[in-house]
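Changelog-adjacent note: as of this version, every example in the card shows the full chain rather than a window. The one below runs 127 residues end to end.
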Amino acid sequence: MSNSQVETVTTSADKAKLAGAVLLLAAALVAYYALAKQGPIAQWAALLVLLAASVGAFFTSESGKSLIAYGRDSAREVRKVVWPTHKEARQMTGYVFAFVVIMALFLWLTDKTLEWVLYDLVLGWKR
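Full-length structure tokens:
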């Protein structure tokens, strides 16, 4: 196990961007309910514009940039995956189903054996 520690460095500008994103999100909700008398078009327009501004402010912060980098790295890793063929997927599914059936039979047989030993032989209860 490695003993590397993760250090996060946040500047005051980054904190301000995150605070601005949160404030824009709150403003979007307030505007949506405050514009109820103006009609649904004004409500939704204000909500969507302020939400887009909030998302934009978040993605300009270091947290947003690291989230975008994580998404890119994840997409790159998914492209490296060697996916099974249709035949291999069917075979593996068949193996899983067969294992489940065998395990179910084993557990049923074990349960009935223990039931017989405990109730019939040990306790003498006849059904």
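Structural remarks: The CA atoms of residues 24 and 54 lie 5 Å apart.
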